[in-house]
Amino acid sequence: VLGGKPYGDNFVTTGPTETIMILRDPPGTGSSASFEKGMSVSTTKSHEVTNEQSGSANVKFQFGAEVKIFAGIGVGTITETEFDHNLTVGFEHSTTWVSSNETSSTTTTTETWSTSDGSDFVGADGDVFVGYANRQRSKRT
């Protein structure tokens, strides 16, 4: 079935989003192809998502002191000393997050599937596509 097909009163399917297999009809009148009852087709899908974050920063610390020393009795000398100290610290960070997933599915026929052996459907016109689509709620207007 191509396009949208009503499913119940508020669901719609859309084209096969996943094709499991294609049974090709051979050319020539009276020719057909079959997938026998009990045969299986298996598929495996995998995907991986990677997220990386990184950054850097510099932090500067400034500290110091001013010291005044008085030496003497009554009259004396004042000695002033001043010092500054700067400290800069830099850092970088990096984080990587990886998520992977693998899905396997097997489809086994419960009956024999065949292409037409009639003259109405020959070659590509008689191919059988097997797949599935996700159901989606349709909005009523």
Quick tags:
9 strands, mainly beta, rod-shaped, 141 residues, three-stranded antiparallel β-sheet
Task: Describe what you observe in this structure.
- By secondary structure, this protein is mostly beta strands.
- The protein is rod-shaped and about 130 Å long.
- The chain has a 3-stranded antiparallel β-sheet, with no helix packed on it. Strands 3-8 form a two-stranded antiparallel ribbon. The protein has a two-stranded antiparallel sheet with strand order 4-7.
- The protein has no helices and 9 strands.
- Strand 1 and strand 2 form a beta hairpin.
- 2% of the residues are buried.
Overall geometry: rod-shaped
Q: What percent of residues are in strands?
A: over 45%
Total DSSP helices:
0
Largest sheet: 3 strands, antiparallel
Number of strands: 9
The oligomeric status of these chains comes to: single chain
Q: List the uncertain runs.
A: none
The helix/strand series, from N terminus to C terminus, equals EEEEEEEEE
Strands of the widest sheet, in order across it, are 1-2-9
Query: Helicity, in percent?
Result: under 10%
Instruction: Round the mean pLDDT to the nearest integer and report it.
Output: 79
**What structural class do helix, strand and pairing data support?**
mainly beta
The rounded Rg comes to: 39 Å
How many angstroms separate the termini?
24 Å
